[in-house]
Every structure is written in C-alpha cells, then in structure tokens.
Amino acid sequence: MKTVLSIKGLTKDYGRLRAVNQLNLEVQQGQVFGMLGPNGSGKTTTLGMLMGVTNPTAGEFTWFGEPPTHTLRKKIGAVLEHPIFYPYLSGQKNLELNAMVKECPADNIPKVLDLVELSGRKDDKYKTYSLGMKQRLAIASALLNEPTVLILDEPTNGLDPMGIAEIRELTKKIAASGKTIILASHLLDEVQKVCTHFAVLKKGNLIHSGPVDDVGRGAETVEVQADVA
Ligand code: ATP
Predict the structure, then answer these.
(1) pLDDT digits over 104-127, tens only?
(2) Going edge to edge, which strands form the sheet with 58-63?
(3) Pocket test for ligand 1, best of 11, 45, 50, 187 (most atoms within 8 A of CB)
(4) What is the pTM (predicted TM-score) of this model?
(5) How far does the centroid of ligand 1 lie from the alpha carbon of residue 39, in Å?
(6) Which of 6, 35, 143, 215 is the most exposed place for a label (fewest CB within 10 A)?
C-alpha cells in the first residue's frame, strides 16, 4: 500500500487560538479518508495547510513521500468551501476558464461533465444550476487536470436529500475510478456511508483514527459519536 499523505506534528495557531494541535496522520492510496469533526474542530484549517494556502505554525507533511511543492500540488484537486464561478457564464465556459487558470488542456471537459452528469446542462448559465449541480460542477473543475487525490470540504453542506445522495454516489464513483479522496465532514453518517477510513478531530486534536468498519464496535462508537456531536 502506497502512502499518499503523511502528516507529522502539524500545528496551526491563530494568535492565541490553537486551531490544529500536533496532528499525525497517514492516508494510503485508494482510501476514501474522512476527516470528521464538529464545526470549529480544525478540518478546514488542516485542508488549507495541505493545499498550501495556510501556513503551518509547526510540523510537516509530505505528499507522495516528498515535501509539498507546486508540481506535487498539481496532483491534488480540491473543492474547498467557496469555489468561484461566474453566474452569467455557462457551466462549459466556466470550466474552460478554470482550465486556463490551472494551465491544463480543455480536452477533459466533456469527460468530467459526463462524470458529474452535467453534459445535458453544460450550455445553461451557472446561475440557473441547483446547489447540487453547482457542487458537481466544482468537483468537475477539480478533476480537470486529472489529479491523483481529490480533497472535498463538506461537499454536501446545504444540499437537499437528493443533492446529498448524488454527491455521495459521485464520490464513491470517483473513488472507484482509482482516486484517493480526503473528505471533511461533520456527519458521522456521511463518513460511514462514503469513507473507508477516518480521523476524528475535536478542538484541533486527533481523538481517533482507523478504518470506518471500527465504527459500530461497542464502546468506540459511543465515544466517537459523543465526540462528534
Ligand atoms: P467549519 O466546519 O466551521 O469550517 P472546521 O472544523 O473546518 O469548522 P476550522 O474552520 O479549521 O474548523 O476552524 C478551527 C478554529 O480556528 C475555529 O475556532 C475557527 O474559529 C478558527 N479559525 C479558522 N480560521 C481562522 C482565521 N483565519 N483566523 C482566526 N481564527 C480562525
């Protein structure tokens, strides 16, 4: 099993607030890795550090065994909390612009639109899309440069039950295509349905990590559920 991500002692302080405290984690190739924790537990801060947009206060991490560099980050696609799309442009045009920004060819656009089931709506303006469709377009955009790893930050937040089910199915489909996925969520149920492995964060501290199958085994379940709530 190949290690995709290795995190050692990763820490982030915002002034006197310690948002992430001495985090140690490993993610292996092919895992759908859930970062589970309530609001404010440090999930977004951790993902920001892994994407190079937030500077760690201490600690280190490697992607594919090497220190994070621009080139390595090209292997990682991310859908963070607030993706930027132009409301009056079509889904297709928005992806073309994103491909330019990412400096990757537009050839993959039909493939990613097909994957997220938006081919039939590609010429409609972004502002006419439902929240679920917007989220699917954001995932399509993150996949444009064929990353090895996909990072999703609370991908089902704010969606209706159908939108939630679609995103969960899509996540599983992308995982089945061979990508490693890191997914932040505050929902134990979501992590159980979608992930193979998970870590539980609480107030910046890692309180549990392991296979998702662990949940459901006696005392540990109670502990995880109590800590996530
Ligand atoms: P959410 O789901 O609400 O985004 P989260 O688990 O992703 O929660 P973070 O957003 O990483 O958690 O926040 C962790 C802590 O760090 C919180 O107490 C938050 O208020 C604080 N924090 C996050 N970003 C900043 C910032 N830029 N400046 C100061 N404090 C911050």
Answers:
(1) 889 999 999 999 999 999 999 999
(2) 17-28, 3-14, 58-63
(3) 45
(4) 0.91
(5) 8
(6) 6
